[in-house]
Request: fold
Amino acid sequence: MTAVVTGGSSGIGLALAHEFARHGYEVVVAAQEPVAGFESVVADLTTQEGVETVYEHVRGRDITALALNAGITARSDDLERELALVDLNVRSTVHLARLLTPDMAARGHGRVLFTASIVDVMPGPYQATYNASKAFIASFAEGLRHELRKDGVSVTVLEPGPTDTPIFDRAGQDTTLLGALVPKDEPEEVARQAVQALLAGRDSVVTASLTAKAAHAVSRVLPSAITSRLNALVTRPR
Reply:
């Protein structure tokens, strides 16, 4: 069994790699630098060349699990990073999915995990592109699930709450309430629940804490005008 994990150098991606290994998978990690303990393919997934590098590295292998996890966040006043976010979170996810899932379908088996977020159901003031990218991922995954259902390939959407990873520091959001004060889940627990849901063939999983699950449930029923204001309280630069 082979699992491919993108964005596996740290955070949820690295935890997913370890969790797949714990379940007996041979793990290939795609990241911008080699990842100790795993077969690594070094690639910049914000570029088409980087995506194709990953595909050529694993092409022809019997991939039984694919975790499309690579992603960054960005402040709304950082246009350059926002555009890189679109390339990584959205473009590379679609590109790799379209390159790798046909082989899974042809073999008649496979499991795909897309990392979205609990914010995929709410607008994101001050990180608008990030929230929009996660909404895209959730919607794309649902459509792909329908396309692949007849071919024996399952698609699971991972919707984590705030998680203790470097994502906020790297985007300069460490001084926001979200980055500095909001309680965060451990990536290892997020990964454990994610892989458990993937192997069970579930359509989606909200991880990891009860607080994250409750926030996601409430956000689904509140008007977007309200969730926008609530979200702004923790994402506003300070």
